[in-house]
Amino acid sequence: MSVRWTARSAGAAAWCCACLLAFPAALRAEAGAATGAAANPAAALVQLLDYLAVDYPGAVQAGRVVNPTEYEEMREFAQRAASTAAALPAGEPATRLQADAATLRSLIQQRADVAALRSLIQRMRGELIANYRIAVVPRTAPDLARGAKLFQENCAGCHGASGHGDGAAAASLDPKPTDFHDAERWRQRSLYGLYSTLSNGVAGTAMPSFGQLDEAQRWDLAFLAGSFGAPPAAPGEPPAWARLTEMVTATPAEIEAAHGAEGLQAMASFRRDPSRLAGASPVERARRDLLASRTAYAAGDAEGAYALALSGYLEGFELAEAPLDAVDPDLRHRAEKALLEHRAALQDRAPAEQVEQRLRAALELVDRSAERLAAGRLTGSAAFSASFIILVREGLEALLVIAALMAFLVKTGQRRGLPYLHAGWLGALALGGLLWWVSLRFVHVSGAARELTEGIGALFAAAVMFGLGFWMHNRSNSIEWQRYINQNLDRILGRGSLWGVAGLSFIAVFRECFEIVLFYQALWAQTDDLGRAMTFSGIGAASVVLVVIGALILKYSTRLPLRQFFAATGVFLFVLAVVFAGKGIVALQEAGQLPVMPVPGPRIDLLGIYPNTLSLALQAAMIVLGAVLLWRSRTGAE
After folding, report:
1. Which of 96, 184, 268, 413 could form a disulfide with 230 if both were Cys (CB 3.0 to 4.6 A apart)?
2. Cβ neighbours of residue 562 under 8 Å, at least 6 residues apart?
3. Could you tell me what percentage of the chain is helix, strand and coil, using 3-state DSSP and rounding each to the nearest 5?
4. Mean of the per-residue pLDDT values for the chain?
5. pLDDT tens digits for 9-62?
6. Dihedral sign of CA atoms 161, 182, 251, 116 in order
């Protein structure tokens, strides 16, 4: 439930948002004991370092103390930082940070230059983020419009409607609420620092933890506050060096020091429109969710950690697989395997050390994947290759089923079934397009829902093809086959059964349809104008290949004698059923509906062979059952 602040909030209670950027003079040594600090001293230390970096210039300038009260508070903050560093889990990073905290105290005691202090703080912040379980970036792109609404409900009473620090309650506050438009303070405050203040509050003051707001809402507010003072920014794509973690955890001044005027422009653009970077890269989404899963697991929430890791794959890395296949397929396979092993460790409630080891392996490969994708932009040739691979890989399975069914109807003289067959796959294409349009405008179709649909569809198709394949192969061994055709085929392929053909045609295509659309959507976001033109070229080339394959199947399958045709088609459908069964189980595992049970072995996507116990067990059972049924049919025929 949100808290509304008005002029009647004057006094101590009106502090709640006035403290957000300019409450340094009111802070006491207890600031490090803010909510959540005990659970994660590394996060509390990051918050303290942020206060010191922003507020030290107000206490010391050119080696002189200009504000004795604030200087004493800086000394107290430094002492608290040292105490918090001492509470870090034992290890090499903690030892380094404890030494750095002692150096920090010494610099403040010596009234050192602000540049030296901020350089040390920047290094300590990087060390903390790299080595401890701190979720430092939003999992979804912040919504500034929603943040503006939250600001009016929670902060405008102190900071004013436009964030200039002139709210109705401002006159009663000491110090005065921050003017978020102050350019120098904007340069020295990170977005994570703002988020941390909103999340933890400040003990000893009236600034509470905003626990009534969820994580996304707190990020919305942090980004809004961080955007107020941003200078005008020219439109354009984020530069190749821009990474979400750096843009959220570094201050604009640090980005400018590293990347010059371009860096400052990039930071201003990012804060005014976070979706330009926060929502741009599927690989970045995977990384964010993996880091969030680490935090959840450390807090004892194994189920939440697994859900986050699963989301990072389904909503992130999976959508980058086709573009990555075009530039480094081996890396794609290794990264996918590492992500699976990490999810398996979470699901098995493995020891924290094992989970951390697998997480680091996955993160390393995800980061390498981001680098190979050239900061989210593919060359024209890579876009063509990715587009071609997507359509051929995802469309080939559906084509084989449709072509086999079409050849069956033509070979047996049941051409009246062809309109039903075509109605099925055309309907699947139409519905897939409609669902894509609806998802873009009204609802978000999650990766889990996509995989669930694909998994159920694949298993249903596998069951139908298994039965149909066995039936056709069994008929090929019958001496009375021709008489059976003449007497029974019309009844078997009656109107009801023809609708069944339409249903199988629909399922075979629809299970691929929406996934293809999402892959192309991700590919589109990672290409420039030339790459997008080459994407359409890839679609055209893949379509030609699929048409040629379909035509060859029809041409040569209808030339076979009837008995050989049914035997070959029966075997073909049985093989496809086994392939679809493996893919269906894996899709349900990726949707989080079945446990992940990896085993050593190769992964062969084309054959539906995956190194996990459930899919291999189902495929083995189908092969055994098929062999038993075939043996019994032959024994009965004899």
Report:
1. 268
2. 411, 412, 481, 482, 485
3. 75, 0, 25
4. 74
5. 333 333 333 333 333 333 333 333 333 344 578 888 888 888 888 888 888 988
6. negative
